[in-house]
Amino acid sequence: VESKAWSGRFSEPVAELVKRYTASVGFDHRLAAYDIQGSLAHAHMLQAAGILGAEDWAAIQRGLAMIEQEISDGRFKWSLDLEDVHLNIEKRLTDLIGDAGKRLHTGRSRNDQVATDIRLYLRASIDGLLELIRHAQLAFLDLAEKNADTIMPGFTHLQVAQPVTFGHHLMAYFEMLKRDADRLQDCRKRVNRLPLGAAALAGTSYPIDREMVAKELGFDGVCENSLDAVSDRDFAIEFASCAALIMTHLSRLSEELILWMSPRFGFISIADRFCTGSSIMPQKKNPDVPELIRGKTGRINGHLVALLTLMKSQPLAYNKDNQEDKEPLFDTVDTLANTLTILADMMTGITAKPEAMRAAAAQGFATATDLADYMVKKGLPFRDAHEVVALAVRHAETKGCDLSDLPLAELRGFSDLIEDDVFGVLTLEGSLNSRNHIGGTAPNQVRAAIGRARKLLG
Ligand code: ARG
């Protein structure tokens, strides 16, 4: 059994189950590259401040480079006895370079070390996720562009409301992802602060240069209170909440894709490579990917709640509770990255079925509002126009036809403001084209929105 970095004070080894219970190396080994990066910056600063000799600094660089290589080759032996990623690497360093390895931890604690590792990990993850969001956005733009004129019913309460274009509907998701990316960018600012120097909780008596370490690691600045630096994980909670919102948006989309793919709607098809069959029903093609995106949203929401709950009763400063931040955080990043990657690909495998969309839009009195607006423009107050059209809809419903199918004479029975130019506004195209302002569903506005979006993405 390897002796632990802190075992001197103890008269007996920890029980086997306790060792397993408290160890984090099984998952925090993922932080190794960031741990090494942080150690190099720390040691460099110790050397520059005259706390560490030039030879020790050289040995530490050499040893950490060897360890990095061992890890990437899969040769590194992780030991549960050594508890976590930090102690595993430090012990190996000492085995490789002797006393210089034992000097690395001068003026540092695992408390500020792990907070630094997590922030470096999260910063890199955010940058990767931003790139994946961008890819997904481009996929939405391509599909929206193809469907800038494709008419579909817009819904409220899942009842046909007014015609929109499929492109317009897709651009709604583009906007959500745009805000999601903004939120991640903003969160990144608070992630990107250096905890090192806080040591265990109170700072350190060595003449350290925190600004130098911050600069070397690409942080925007240092955490300004040592207790806060080692104990808070609000940046991780904030990230998890950004992730939960992204998944919530994608879950809404997934719900729509599932409905639209159902033969009852028949609005779209999804390429076979994103669907699966049934082991009993030979005819089935199921939208597994959107269903799983919807399902995994529950798990991401769970991670957010886990992190909030983890923090809520902790007294300052560091407590071991914080070790529990890693698995939810890692799983959030992994799930989100996989979801965004698959989503971007799946959007390229979606094909609209314009006839079915159009037929649905033509069925639900989708242009009733247009008829009311038509009479308002001829001087009738909106509330009265609303009433007139409601009566006309009731009449059409009993006849089993759409408003545009009623003869002019019958329409005039409801208001003599109605003249034969009314059929221009009762058509789906007339309705769409009349909503011709920024944010409206007129096809030329949808194209303009796509143009602005492409410019934004560069
Ligand atoms: N594995 C620990 C964590 O993830 C590292 C910090 C441990 N610090 C301590 N004093 N036990 O938070």
TrEMBL record:
It is found in: Cytoplasm. GO terms for biological process: L-arginine biosynthetic process via ornithine. The keyword Cytoplasm applies. CDD domains: Argininosuccinate_lyase. It is an enzyme of class 4 (lyase). Belongs to the lyase 1 family. Argininosuccinate lyase subfamily. PANTHER family: ARGININOSUCCINATE LYASE. This is Argininosuccinate lyase. It comes from Sulfurirhabdus autotrophica. The lineage of its organism: Bacteria, Pseudomonadati, Pseudomonadota, Betaproteobacteria, Nitrosomonadales. The gene is argH.
